Prior knowledge:
eight-stranded mixed sheet, 8 strands, 41% helix
Amino acid sequence: MPDELRFLENKRKPQRTTDASLAGKRCVVTGATSGVGMAAAERLAAAGADLVLVCRDRAKAERVRAEILAGRGRGADIGIVAADFSDLETVRNAAAELLASCPRIDIIVNSAGMHSTTRRLTTAGHELVFCVNHLAPFLLTSLLLERIKASAPSRIVMVNSEGHRFGGLDLDDLDWSRRHYTGLRSYGASKIAQLLVLPEFAQRLAGSGATINAMHPGDVRSNIGQNNGFLYRAFKTVVIDRFLKDPAISGEAIYWLAAAPEAEGVSGKYFYLTIEEKPAAHAVDGALGKRVWELSRSLVGLA
Ligand SMILES: NC(=O)c1ccc[n+]([C@@H]2O[C@H](COP(=O)([O-])OP(=O)(O)OC[C@H]3O[C@@H](n4cnc5c(N)ncnc54)[C@H](OP(=O)(O)O)[C@@H]3O)[C@@H](O)[C@H]2O)c1
C-alpha cells in the first residue's frame, strides 16, 4: 500500500492505550469547550491532571469545567483562560496569563480549530481558518516554549488532520485573494503549515526533555463546521455524523501521546490516533518548513 493511503489501514488498527498517572501535572488544553479538545480535557483530568482550559467562550468553559468535576475529573484544579484564536492579541494576553499563573506547564494540547466553506478575513487581514488553525496555536506554543522546556519532561500535542492531504498551501497567496477559495483546501493549507513547522519546534526542544507531536484525532462527531451555512450543517448532521465515531477515542489517543511511557522522547512525528504515520510529501518538505517557520513568526509578530 502506498504511504499516502496508509491512513486507511491505520484507522482500523487497534490503538495503543495507557494508564499512566498525570497526578501533579498541569495541562493547557485549547478548544476544550467541544469535541476533540473537550474529550482530551476530560481524559487528562481522569488521569489526575490539573487543567487550564483556553477558550473563547467563558460561560461554555465554565459548563465544561463543572461537567469534568462532576464526572471522572473530580478533584482536579481547572482554570479558564480566554482567547479568541481569530485575534492574535488575545492569544498573546492568554499566554501572558498562563505564564503568570502556571509555574509549570507539563502538557499542551492544541485542539482549537475550525472549517469554513467561505473565505473570511480576520480584523488583522489573515484568512480566518489559517489564523485559527495555524497562526494562533503557533503563537501560543512559541510563547509557552521556554516554560514547557523548563517543566520537562513535558509534551506538546498538536491536533492536526488527515485533511492536510487536501493540499492548498501557497505561501504567495495565504489569504486566498488570487485563488478560488474552497473550504477543504483552506483547511488543508492550515494543517500543512502546522505539520511543516513541527520539525522546527522539535529541533528547538531537542535535548530539553520536552517533545512535540501532531496527530489526526480520528473521524469523530463534533461541532466542527457548525459556523457554516444551513445546507452544510444539515448535510453534516444528517449524513456525515452517522459515519463518525465518539470523540472519546480522540481523548484516549491524546492522553496516550501526552502520558504513555512508550511515547517518551518521541518528537516531531505525526500519528493517526496513536499509530505513527508518514504525512503527505507536501507536508514534510524541510526547506519549505523553514520558510513557513519564518513567515509564521513574522505574521504573528515574533520575527
Ligand atoms: N472531528 C474530527 O473528526 C476531526 C478530524 C480531524 C481533525 N480534527 C481537528 O480537531 C480539532 C478540534 O475540532 P473538533 O472536531 O473537536 O471541532 P469542534 O467540536 O468544533 O471544537 C473546536 C474547538 O475549537 C474552538 N474554537 C473554534 N474557533 C475558535 C476561535 N476563534 N478561538 C478559540 N477557540 C476556537 C471551539 O470553541 P467554541 O466551543 O467556542 O466553538 C471548540 O472548543 C480541530 O483542530 C480539527 O481540525 C477534527
